[in-house]
């Protein structure tokens, strides 16, 4: 294989070397005239000549070579030299010295925090230490509901890391059941045959269990993960992600969380039968998208055999019994302090360390960026492991920046082991990948120790905020907006509004939400400041806990902004909600122009195993037959 590597070159002094090298590789003789070769290549050529690179041409029998190891090394070095010359000749800057860019395996080096001499004893009385002594405990329901398992032989993806393509990328031979390739479209699946999603405030079982456990606040993974992410940005001071393991095409790509994942989050803290239930604000959610529909139907397809799954198609849905339609779903519950949390269990396998795991579906890059026109991107397919586009690596990279933090919190709330991702373009499935909780910890936090403490600290901080707000507005439904979207600010802004429960229905299932910019007159604004200390030294910049012996202490200060006029507070909140709208609501009915190139079929140039005659003429190389 002749590689084209023209990116990195040495600045060594150019010099001229000519050598005639004969080798029995490929049964050809190459006469090489090499010009503008760097000093690093002089040693390479000298070694080839010194070790008699001219292989006997009378026979190719390895017994005529005294040392087969040296013969193998000569061939390897000669191939390396050929690649250098060929890459140099095809580059635009032919006057620079030749250097072959060798791909090096990247190893992640844990982020080292910047420590100052200041200690926590230097803080004044307005700062409070965050108590993380409580532990998140699992609570088992009275009724045991079995959890689904994978079908179609997909179990093997759980125990071997990396991507498992549906088809072999070279031979196109199916590695899993061909039945999985084509995705059932939303207009073919009967979603009425499945139970609808229930918010925390509508889940009577959740509220009853919370009362039994003497909890004050209830919530689900979907409603709480956004709040926990905002708190993490504040507590970690916007710690970057680990992108060192990606290929060289991602060297200059961002290593921060995406803008969409950092957008301010709004929730409703609903007073419900003596407890508060956390519901997500659906003001910016229009009609359900194709991705949300496919997420539900593909979950059935991955966990059911074909005959059983096809009963849920519209043409066969009459075969689904009422018991199956109303079958209760499996949930995991947990308690932390006065918080009582719920997580749906998608799938399980008895040999996994924590048994249960979540099912996630990941659409390709252009589909995610232009959902209304998703059918125009059927030509965008994942055909390679690595690369900026058309690759599994790109989807993993985007998912790490946009969703890993949310998934990490959801997995911990549900006491799960990890997630299994299905890559698709809404029409075709390309492959599967199991990502464990430990792997997400490594990408997000560097170590499992920091991941565990992040989860505990965020839950503790959330409970403190809820206690503060409900004390100010007792037995009232609140709309809370948290903003820690910009790394340049050293605080988090929190807006709290008391609302009448009858005034908004933006969290009701099945109803289309309408964006409303109205703000309550009884509006309060708080600022949350945090300071982190590692082994009693102040951390400046992103937080990192790399050693088991490290002690991470967090101090916080929560201040109500009472000196700001109400009109200014309302203006700030309206501006923030407009910012939320620009991130979630479609801005144009047309597709972004930069995505147009992904609508047509991909054109792949043929790879060259050996240079053509024209390439050899450019190199002043002559190709002859071996005598």
List the helices and strands and how they pair.
Blueprint: E1 15-22, E2 28-37, H1 39-50, H2 68-90, E3 114-115, E4 128-129, E5 137-139, E6 163-165, H3 204-212, E7 217-220, H4 221-236, H5 259-262, E8 265-272, E9 275-280, H6 290-303, H7 306-309, H8 322-325, E10 331-336, E11 339-344, E12 347-348, E13 356-363, H9 365-369, H10 392-402, H11 404-413, E14 418-424, E15 429-436, H12 437-444, H13 448-472, E16 477-483, E17 491-499, E18 524-534, E19 537-540, E20 552-560, H14 566-584, H15 613-618, E21 622-625
Parallel strand pairs: 7-9, 7-11, 13-14
Antiparallel strand pairs: 1-2, 2-21, 3-19, 4-20, 5-10, 6-15, 8-9, 8-16, 10-11, 12-13, 14-15, 16-17, 17-18, 18-19, 18-20
Helix pairs in contact: 1-2, 4-11, 4-13, 11-12
């Amino acid at each position: 294989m002749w590689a084209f590597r023209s990116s990195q070159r040495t600045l060594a002094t150019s010099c001229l070397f000519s050598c005639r090298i004969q080798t029995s590789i490929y049964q050809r003789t190459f006469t090489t005239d090499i010009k503008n070769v760097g000093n690093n290549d002089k040693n390479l050529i000298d070694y080839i000549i010194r070790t008699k690179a001219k292989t006997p041409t009378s026979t190719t029998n390895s017994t005529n070579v005294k040392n087969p190891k040296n013969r193998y090394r000569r061939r390897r070095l000669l191939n390396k030299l050929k690649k250098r010359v060929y890459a140099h000749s095809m580059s635009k800057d032919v006057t620079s010295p030749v250097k072959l860019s060798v791909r090096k395996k990247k190893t992640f080096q844990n982020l080292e925090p910047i420590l100052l001499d200041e200690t926590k004893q230097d803080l004044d009385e307005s700062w409070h230490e965050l108590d993380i002594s409580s532990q998140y405990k699992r609570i088992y329901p009275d009724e045991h509901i079995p959890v689904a398992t994978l079908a179609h032989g997909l179990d093997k993806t759980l125990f071997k890391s990396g991507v498992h393509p549906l088809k072999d990328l070279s031979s196109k031979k199916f590695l899993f059941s061909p039945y999985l390739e084509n995705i059932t479209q939303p207009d073919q699946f009967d979603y009425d045959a499945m139970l609808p999603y229930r918010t925390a405030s509508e889940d009577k079982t959740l509220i009853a269990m919370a009362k039994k456990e003497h909890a004050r606040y209830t919530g689900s993974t979907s409603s709480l993960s956004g709040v926990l992410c905002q708190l993490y940005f504040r507590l970690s001071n916007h710690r970057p992600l680990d992108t060192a393991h990606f290929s060289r095409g991602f060297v200059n790509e961002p290593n921060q969380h995406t803008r969409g994942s950092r957008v301010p989050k709004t929730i409703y803290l609903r007073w419900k039968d003596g407890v508060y239930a956390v519901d997500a604000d659906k003001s910016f959610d229009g009609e359900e998208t194709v991705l949300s529909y496919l997420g539900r139907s593909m979950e059935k397809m991955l966990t059911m055999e074909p005959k059983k799954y096809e009963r849920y198609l519209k043409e066969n849905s009459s075969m689904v019994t009422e018991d199956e339609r109303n079958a209760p779903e499996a949930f995991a519950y947990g308690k932390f302090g006065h918080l009582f949390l719920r997580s749906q269990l998608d799938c399980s396998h008895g040999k996994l360390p924590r048994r249960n795991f979540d099912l996630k579906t990941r659409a390709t890059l252009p589909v995610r960026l232009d959902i209304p026109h998703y059918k125009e991107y059927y030509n965008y397919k994942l055909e390679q492991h690595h690369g900026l586009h058309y690759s599994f690596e790109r989807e993993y990279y985007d998912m790490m920046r946009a969703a890993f933090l949310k998934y990490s919190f959801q997995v911990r709330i549900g006491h799960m082991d990890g997630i299994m991702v299905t890559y698709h373009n809404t029409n075709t499935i390309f492959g599967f990948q199991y990502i464990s909780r430990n792997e997400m910890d490594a990408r997000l936090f560097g170590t499992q120790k920091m991941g565990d403490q992040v989860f505990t600290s965020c839950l503790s901080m959330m409970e403190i905020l809820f206690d503060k707000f409900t004390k100010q507005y007792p037995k009232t439904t609140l709309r809370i907006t948290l903003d820690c979207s910009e790394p340049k600010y050293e605080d988090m802004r929190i807006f709290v509004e008391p609302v009448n429960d009858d005034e908004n229905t933006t969290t009701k299932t099945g109803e289309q939400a309408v964006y409303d910019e109205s703000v309550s007159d009884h509006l309060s604004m708080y600022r949350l400041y945090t300071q982190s200390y590692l082994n009693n030294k102040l951390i400046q910049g992103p937080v990192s806990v790399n050693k088991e012996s490290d002690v991470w202490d967090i101090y916080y200060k929560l201040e109500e902004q009472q000196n700001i006029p109400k009109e200014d507070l309302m203006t700030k909140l309206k501006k923030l909600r407009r910012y939320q709208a620009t991130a979630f609501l479609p801005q144009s009915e047309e597709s972004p122009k930069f995505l147009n190139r992904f609508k047509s079929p991909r054109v792949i140039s043929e790879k060259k195993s050996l240079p053509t005659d024209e390439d050899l003429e450019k190199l002043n190389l002559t190709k002859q037959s071996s005598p």
